[in-house]
Amino acid sequence: MIQIKDFKDNIGIEIVVHGWTANRRSSKRLEFIVLRDGSGFAQCIVDANNVDERTYKNAKLTNQETSVKITGTVVKDDKQIGGYELHVSDLEIIGTSNNYPVTNKKHGVEFLIDKRHLWLRSKRQWAIMRVRNKLIYSIHNFFQKEGFVQADAPVFTGNACEGTSTLFASEFYGETAYLTQSGQLYGEAMALALGKIYTFGPTFRAEKSKTRRHLSEFWMIEPEMAFYNNDMNMDLIEKFIKYVLKDINENCKYEFEILRRDTGSFEKIINTKFPRLTYDNAVKILKGELEINGKTTIETLEQDLEDVKRGIVERKKEIAEREKIIAGGVKRGKRNFLQNKINNFKNEIKDLEIKAKNIPSWIKSANEFEYGNDFGGSDETVITRMFDVPVMVYNWPHKIKAFYMKRDNDAPELAKGVDVLAPEGYGEIVGGGERETNLELLIEKIKGHNLPMSDFEWYLDLRRYGSVPHAGFGLGLERLIAWICKLSHIRETIPFPRMYKRLFP
RNA sequence: UCCUCCUUAGCUCAGUUGGUUAGAGCACCUGACUGUUAAUCAGGGUGUCCUAGGUUCAAGUCCUAGAGGAGGAGCCA
Fold it and tell me: Could you tell me where the DSSP H helices lie in A272-385?
């Protein structure tokens, strides 16, 4: 069976292809069917002069998402997306489709997410799922090449290690079990058995968050390396991000074209050393006390605000011009075209107005930031605004970090953690660090966090028997996809998102 | 848990200071057009205006409560 992706090897040959009609247009004796088969998209032409009556009639009967078996000759045509089209000689309908709900027009979020099982068929979602697939493959390739062993942590756990409020409880032979929110502790045990490991599995957080960057179920990659300190950890993170980005950039050109993702920034990220900021310096940058390329964050944001305001004025002008033309009276096609343009401008204005409202509050929040706190979402956006590449922030106040994070011997207030902040306002995509090896400090920390000591005895054994320096990090797959595809919401990065109050479909 | 906004046709949305019979585009059907890229052109009809209560001569529009949704805060990857 030939797939659309194989058309390039079958020019001039009559082949059979199975798929669905993504769209159909017609003129007097011609039917243009955009076929999708999962491997790609291709236009199929049914010419009434060249096919029997049954095939032409079938072609006219196809609607959006009718499944078909098409026989035809592959022809090169540079005008087509993908570069090839099919001249049909026979068309058979396999399954009909009437009133398909997810049309090629605009839909609202609620409707689309209710119809997620069908939404997945649309071109944009197809492209995202393919990027996701390539990214997963690339992640495995990287770690396997680096000598890591994939070793998975359990999904059911008895440890309530970071408070039960964010855990999903389940029943396990009469005991309460929780769905894992991190494989990290198990990762440490496995690293001490296998050297360098990575987990790759689903993670669950019962956070009642309704934001564009939260899922209740998401996939996390958690590498853990024996004999690594935090500097080595940061080197690995940087190498890792560059590797997958280069790979994706080379192998997903078609997908990025569909997503209209400008990949120009990837080249720079691949070839630039990521800035490594201590928490102290990150705070100074945030508060405008440290200049980057001769500018403070505050100056940069004020400039941004002016640009945004000017953008709004310009778009309002564009709208007014087009409304004047419509008021003067034009044909339907032209009017629709202009109206669509106007609607696009209106949406852009909406986004800009949100920005115009946000920027002053970002500046305020940045100014009022208190040393010792964790960065909020807007603070991360402000810091990353100053760079075109991912930024690493390390040496955090230990008080705001997890109990297992290694304290700095020279600066006891600090912990050797690292967060990687993605550019373009995508926030934290990686969190990690060196792990505490001092048994007494760990016990003290566990008590300090009011965690049940008995649940952690197995973990403390790792420090009792052949303890070594080790480090690792956690990467949220969906946040990485959202950034790479420049999506406005994380729900599009996973086939069936599980979010607060969203269990179906 | 808190704050802001939204809910009108299958879908996306208009609907003015409350005022006749609630509108448009798309989708769908018919017809026109030899190559279209969300094709275009002509025609065809559809509503518990989220629910309940209230104010009023009159409510899609105002008020109260509730349900559902979206964004954000907190928390986080």
Answer: 279-286, 297-327, 332-367, 377-385
Any domain includes A118: no
Q: Are A502 and A260 in contact (CB under 8 A)?
A: no
pLDDT at residue A383, rounded to an integer: 92
Instruction: Let me know whether A235 and A266 are in one domain.
Output: yes
pLDDT digits (tens, 9 = 90+) for A407-419: 998 998 999 999 9
Q: What pLDDT is recorded for position A48?
A: 84
CA of A99 to C1' of B44 (A): 17
Q: Tokens 């987990």 sit at which residue?
A: A199
Evaluate whether residue A498 is within a structural domain.
no
Check if the interface score ipTM surpasses 0.85: no
DSSP A4: G
Q: Measured between alpha carbons, how far is A415 from A321 in angstroms, rounded to an integer? A: 58
pLDDT value at residue A97: 83
Number of domains in chain A: 3
Q: What is the DSSP string of A6-54?
A: GGGG-BT-EEEEEEEEEEEEE-SSEEEEEEE-SS-EEEEEEETTTS-HH
User: And the tokens for A469?
Assistant: 């320096």
Residue A411: inside a domain, yes or no? Answer: yes
Instruction: Give start and end residues of each alpha helix (H) in A69-122.
Output: 109-114, 116-119
Label residue A328 by pLDDT band (50, 70, 90): low
* Residue whose Cα is closest to the C1' of B24: A336
Residue A133 has pLDDT above 90, yes or no: yes
Distance CA A402, CA A400 (A): 7
Q: Which nucleotides of B are covered by protein (CB under 7 A)?
A: 1-2, 10-13, 25-29, 32-42, 68-77
Q: Which domain holds residue A416?
A: 123-272+388-493
> Please, what's the b/e burial string for A48-85 (b: 16 or more CB within 10 A of its CB; e: otherwise)?
beebeeebbebbeebebbbbbebbbebeeeeebeeebb
Give the β-pairing of A14-26 and A156-157. Answer: unpaired
pLDDT over 70, % of chain A: 94
Q: Which residues are CB-neighbours of A34 under 8 A, at least 6 positions away? A: A21, A22, A23, A24, A41, A42, A43, A44
Model pLDDT, residue A470: 97
Taking the CA of residue A269 and the C1' sugar atom of nucleotide B16, their distance in angstroms comes to 52
| Higher pLDDT, residue A484 or A364 | A484
Residue A423 CB contacts under 8 Å (≥ 6 apart), including other chains: A265, A269, A384, A387, A388, A389, A390, A391, A483
CA A37 to chain centre: 24
Distance A74 CA to B8 C1' (A): 48
End-to-end Cα separation, chain A, in angstroms = 31
Maximum distance among all Cα pairs of chain A, rounded to whole angstroms: 86
Mean pLDDT of A248-261: 90
Residue A114 lies in a domain: no
